[in-house]
Every structure is written in C-alpha cells, then in structure tokens.
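Exercise 7. Given the components listed, write out the predicted structure of the assembled complex. Treat all entries as one system.
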Amino acid sequence: QSALTQPASVSGSPGQSIAISCTGTSSDVSGYNYVSWYQQHPGKAPKLMIYDVTRRPSGVSDRFSGSKSGNTASLTISGLQAEDEADYYCCSYTTSSTFVFGTGTKVTVL
Amino acid sequence: EMQLVESGGGLVQPGGSLRLSCAASGFIFSNYWMSWVRQAPGKGPEWVARMKQDGSEKYYVDSVKGRFIISRDNAKNSLYLQMNSLRAEDTAVYYCARVGYGFDIWGQGTMLTVSS
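Answer.
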C-alpha cells in the first residue's frame, strides 16, 4: 500500500486561505468516505482535524474544512493563523481493511 | 479526561523482541477498535495494526505481518503490540490511537530504537 500523495509544503500569509491536496486511488480515497486529516506540531502527537472527508470534531476551528473529488481529497484552512503552522497528514481507509497515511505537508505561515 | 499512555519502548538489537503497552482511561475501552501507528524519525505516520473490540478481527500493514501481534485486555483497559524479529526500519515512535471517527485520541508515544 503506497502512501497517499501530498505536496511537501504549502505557505500563506496570515488571513489567507490555503488548500492541501491528498491524492490516492480507487482502492482508498475514492473508494470510501473515510478520509481524515491530522495536524502535528513538532514533538507532539497528531491531532484529528477532519474525519469522514468533511466532518469536524468538537473543538476544532471551523476555519478547517475538508472535501473530496474523485481520487483527491483536500483540506482547506481559511483565515490562516500563526498557530496553524504545522505538518498536516491525510489518511484513508483502504480496500484491504487497512489505513494509509499521506506523505505529509508542511504549512508555513509567512 | 480521555487518555492513552504508551510504555515499553527502548533500545533493541536487530532480530530481538519487545512488547509495547497502552493504558486507556476516561472512556469505555471495550467499545472501540484500537490501533497502533508509528512514526520514524523525520517521517510521516504509518498505520501499523488495528484490532476489533472483542479481538475477533485484526489487521496489519504488510511490512509487519508475521512479526507483530496486536492484542488487548478489556478488563485491564490495555492494548499491546508484541514485536518480534525487529529490524532497523522498525525504529520509530509508536503511538496507540483510538479508532472512533478517525483516529480521535492518541497517546504521547513510546520510542523504539532497533540498533546493534
């Protein structure tokens, strides 16, 4: 199972919106509505930001939103803030009853 | 407070074995699938294994099949990962994670280093 493909880095200025893509295959991303997104700050455990493609856990800012089209899922961060600077990973359920994470995207707030 | 606390990491020689533990608190452990996820230094997370509430279903990433065994003790609110035939590429921080809607609760992780 190959890792899902994400851009290595994305940057934006405070207040701007950015989008992070996550490309998989028919065996994972497009096969199920079980894509989740995680934020990870250095030295910390990942934190769930989006689950089931578009749903936000309680306590996560509504500046974070998710979507999916075909084999590609996306995480959008609107109104970018300094605290959003972190690594972001997508994750999908697969046809093998396993999970696969993305390659990761470093978000930089300029 | 819902919490997961891993333990058992350390330095192991190639070919050796180690068992990781994860203690759960603050939620009904027996109601959830549970997973192990690892993260090699400087790399992204890699899903390793998951186990159904009653232990009747277990799934593994191909790279650990036949070497790692996931287990749980619902009476002790604990998840385990028995790791055998360890390789240098198994070096990572190992997290246990609750499988709710997504991996919704994570522990702080325990470090495994496989080196001679």
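Discussion: The CA atoms of residues 24 and 58 of chain A lie 27 Å apart. The interface with chain B takes residues 1, 3, 36, 38, 40, 45-48, 50-52, 55, 57, 87, 89, 91, 96-104 of chain A (CB under 8 Å).
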